[in-house]
């Protein structure tokens, strides 16, 4: 997890696990991945990459950490053609290479800036930089989340405003969750105004939905998990 909250994964490990070949050009600082009939090229620290000569954009640039090239998790879905889901409760990334019809919903590519996650309409790139991930309810059942929401407190990024993120959280929850329950969630969130403030895990319920809010000192962010009740 890099400072803007984006998840990155080691490119060679993931690519080779999917049967791809990976080549590194140290002079040009460029990686070439060959998978089936596809050729993917990307340069370190750049968001752009090419797939069979056609240029695409990642949501953040690739990085090198201790000699290992890391790429945004979205890249795995867009360029390598896998279905990717991120289970924040169990801190696990699932990468599924089965591209049968029922598994074609990848991490969504931006389309008019919005997508639908388990019935909730989500702005994929909000101005507040609120992070919203689709849970695994539809894949693994009721013990898994509908939504995984992260409010970030990053002193190094002046564009991040937790108050605006709280507003976006409220707008998302009000789409489905009872207004009184949402009001209780927002009152609880209002107690955290700095990265140092902690919110012990607390559960809020209405007839149909359960919302769990927590913030730990270890990462400073607020995690909000939405379940089907």
Q: What is the C-alpha radius of gyration, as a whole number of Å?
A: 19 Å
Mean pLDDT equals 83
How many independent structural domains? 2
Silhouette: elongated
Strand order within the widest beta sheet? 2-3-4-5-6
Q: Please bin the fraction of helical residues.
A: 10-25%
Could you tell me the number of beta strands? 17
Q: H/E series, N to C? A: EHEEEEEEEHEEEEEHEHHEEE
Biggest pleated-sheet summary: 5 strands, antiparallel
Organism: Paenibacillus physcomitrellae
Protein name: Copper amine oxidase-like N-terminal domain-containing protein
InterPro entries: Cu_amine_oxidase-like_N, Mao_N_sf
Domain Copper amine oxidase-like N-terminal: 1-95
Kindly summarize this structure in a few lines.
The chain is 17% helix and 37% strand.
Notes on the structure:
The strands form five sheets. Strands 2-3-4-5-6 form a five-stranded antiparallel beta sheet, covered by helices on one side. A five-stranded antiparallel beta sheet has the order 13-14-17-16-15, with helices on one face. The protein has two domains: 1-107, Copper Amine Oxidase, Chain A, domain 1 (2-Layer Sandwich), CATH 3.30.457; 108-228, no CATH class. It has 229 residues and is of the alpha+beta class. The protein is elongated. The longest helix has 12 residues, at 162-173. Strand 3 (30-35) and strand 4 (38-43) form a beta hairpin. It has helices at 11-17, 73-78, 137-140, 162-173, 179-189; strands at 8-10, 21-25, 30-35, 38-43, 48-51, 54-57, 63-65, 68-72, 83-87, 92-96, 114-117, 120-123, 131-134, 147-151, 199-205, 209-215, 222-228. Helix content is 17%, strand content 37%.
């Amino acid at each position: 997890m890099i400072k803007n909250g984006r998840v990155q994964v080691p490119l060679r490990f993931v690519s080779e696990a999917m049967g791809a070949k990976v080549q590194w050009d140290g002079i040009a600082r460029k990686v070439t991945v060959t998978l089936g009939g596809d050729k993917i090229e990307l340069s370190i620290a750049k968001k752009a990459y090419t797939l069979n000569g056609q240029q695409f954009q990642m949501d953040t640039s690739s990085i090198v950490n201790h000699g290992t090239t890391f790429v945004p998790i979205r890249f795995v879905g867009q360029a390598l053609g896998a279905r990717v889901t991120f289970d924040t409760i169990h801190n696990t990334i699932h990468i599924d290479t089965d591209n049968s019809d029922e598994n074609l919903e990848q991490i969504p590519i931006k389309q008019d800036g919005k997508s639908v996650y388990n019935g909730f309409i989500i702005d994929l790139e909000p101005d507040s930089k609120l992070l919203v991930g689709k849970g695994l309810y539809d894949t693994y059942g009721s013990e898994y989340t509908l939504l995984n929401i992260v409010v970030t407190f990053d002193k190094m990024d002046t564009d991040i405003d937790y108050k605006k993120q709280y507003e976006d959280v409220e707008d998302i929850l009000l789409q489905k969750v009872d207004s009184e329950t949402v009001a209780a969630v927002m009152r609880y969130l209002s107690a955290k105004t700095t990265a140092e403030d902690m919110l012990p895990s607390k559960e809020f319920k209405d007839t149909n939905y359960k919302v769990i809010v927590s913030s730990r000192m270890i990462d400073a962010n607020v995690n909000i998990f939405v379940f089907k009740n």
